[in-house]
Amino acid sequence: FQAEDGIRDIGVTGVQTCALPILIAGVVEIRILISNKFAGMGYGTKLMKANIEYVVSETGFSKIIGGCLSENLAMRRLFEKNGFTFDGTKASVNKNDFSRELFYLYSRKI
């Protein structure tokens, strides 16, 4: 998506069925990525609310899941501020440098 002037790329967002090895019935995954230069300007909050509203009003899903890197405190707060509960952590390997990363996992029932 872009800023009001239609020029600056702010980030990406979306809602999709779970990106898991098996499809979990009734569960949808939410993703939000904001460019660092636009962080802290309220775009994440607006997108989270819009995505939740879309899932509630336009789909039949009963649960939303999401996650973020452990050091992404702003995204962790955004999940919690919007009614998501912390479900635990998951270790992963960074595809670029093969370092280990820790993801925080969240969910919200509709």
Quick summary of this structure?
This protein is of the alpha+beta class. The chain has 2 helices and 5 strands. It is globular and about 40 Å long.
Low-confidence stretches: none
The main pleated sheet reads as: 5 strands, mixed
Shape: globular
Helix content: 10-25%
Our measurement of the CA-to-CA distance between the termini, rounded to an integer number of angstroms, reads 26 Å
Structural class: alpha+beta
Which SSEs are present, and which pair or pack?
Layout: E1 11-17, E2 27-34, H1 43-58, E3 63-69, H2 73-81, E4 85-93, E5 100-109
Parallel strand pairs: 2-3
Antiparallel strand pairs: 1-2, 3-5, 4-5
Plain-language structure description:
- This protein is α+β, with helices and mostly antiparallel strands.
- Helix content is 23%, strand content 37%.
- It has helices at 43-58, 73-81, and strands spanning 11-17, 27-34, 63-69, 85-93, 100-109.
- It has a five-stranded mixed beta sheet, covered by helices on one side.
- The relative contact order is 0.18.
